[in-house]
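Thread: Newbie trying to understand structure tokens

Hi all, I'm a second-year student working on a class project, and my supervisor (Dr. K.) asked me to get a predicted structure for one chain before our next meeting. I've only ever worked with sequences, so writing a 3D structure as a token string is new to me. If someone could post the tokens and maybe explain what I'm looking at, I'd be very grateful. Here's the chain:
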Amino acid sequence: LTVHILWINFITETLPALALSTDHPAADVMSRKPRDPKDSILKGIAPFLLIATLCSFTVGLSIFLFNLDNGNLALTRTMVLTAVVACEMFIVLSARSKRSILHFNPFNNKLILGAILATFSLHLIAVYSPLSKLLGLVPMGFFQIAGVIGLSSLVFVALETMKAVREYMVYKGIMSM
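---
Reply by user tm_fold:
Sure, no problem. This is what the structure looks like when written as tokens:
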């Protein structure tokens, strides 16, 4: 629904973006070569964006198709919306660094962790409060929420695996960073 798109933009783009802006720069930021001004600002992050988008889409579509026959479209929409919010929060965790979690702790910034928890809490409040009527949401059971979060975490796993593979290829000299 249109209101779902507005809700996603409202809760996933405010607190996490503010928290990301306070994150410390990478330790090697001053030793990197400057970016060519002729290059796109998206150069080098296109694979990250592509994987994040494809994984989020796949998670949402899988939940939709799996629950399509349950006869409760509102529940299916609520689960898909929750998955999109969760996927966005896992993307925030992964987007903090070009390095994989093998070399970087994605959980060391308490502001970002707080923003992620606050964002997800706001979403759950919307699902379980009178605001749910306005947003067209219905309550989910514990196992539905756990399943949605579990599936959504695959976005984080995929992004971190991609970064680890890239680091390995750089280490082996197959490609350059």
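A couple of things are worth pointing out once you decode it. The chain has seven helices and no strands. The CA atoms of residues 146 and 152 lie 10 Å apart. Feel free to ask follow-ups in this thread.
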